[in-house]
Amino acid sequence: MTADLVRNPNDMTDRDAMGLPKGFVDGLPADLFTANADLVGAAPAALVDLAHDREVPLPRRVAAATILGLVGDPRISTFEPLMIDIPGGRVRLGLPPERVSAVVDTWGRVGVRAEWIEKECPDHETYVAAFRLARFPVTNQDYREFLVDTGARWLPTSWRFGTYPHHHANHPVWTVPPAAADAYAAWLAQRTGRAFRLPTEAEWEYAAAGYDGREFPWGDDFDPARLNTIEGGVLDTTPVGVFPHGRSPFGVDDMGGNVEEYVADLYRPYPGGHVVRDDLTTAAPQYRVARGGSFTRYGDLARTRRRHGWFERPIYAIGFRLAC
């Protein structure tokens, strides 16, 4: 796969924008399960340990977590999701305007434009109160519970013909609208009596970047082995938590790559900034912000400061995670 995009990716087909050749491209190894047949029948706790083990190769981590998804993943509990405590404090968010050119120089090869990065400006200080953030994004298994219980009709378009993907039970749900994410959080809050909601944009960035404002959840240098983006070549969602090297400073998984995540906020300029009009603001000047990058996009979207949003195309793989 190559990534030299001289045109706006939104003017290209999804496949061309992903840098894929015309012919077949394999993602994970074809012998993913035959090479890991010894995992069949392993205890769930042992499979969890393998899925989270930084020393285990990615294909084996994925195989272990996929088997977990089929037999019952103990990490996934719809009504008691694993939550991480995020301490409060004054934090600096956003990007200094003088750094826009450097970001574009780094990522211009994949079609990144200055106006997209200008949305991150200016850097500013704000106070974020202590809160809790789900360790994993909402999964297909979780979302199925919501649909069955409520009869809601927000079927993910990633579920072919609306059929539940049993083999992707512990993968993040994606291709749902912001209204579905809001409704899910409200439903879970009502069912549990807990104040579940989507994180604010400030909360999300702080949880991903930490006090030191990291460029990516793990640090300042991009590393395709730490997340699920195009560069890694998986070309599909992965079970949650199989990139332990990519955890945020607070121990939150999948904040870079796999699927983008809606936050609670509509797009608006930061204090002291200006409205940036681009393809996402053409139809609606204010759209729901998404963060974190995905398996369909390059690593630029996995930057902790990157502000993005939904567009009606399959390449926009967006899900959500909960805060409370």
Automatic annotation (TrEMBL):
TM segment ranges: none
Domain (Sulfatase-modifying factor enzyme-like): residue spans on this chain: 81-323
Name assigned to this protein: Formylglycine-generating enzyme family protein
Organism: Nonomuraea guangzhouensis
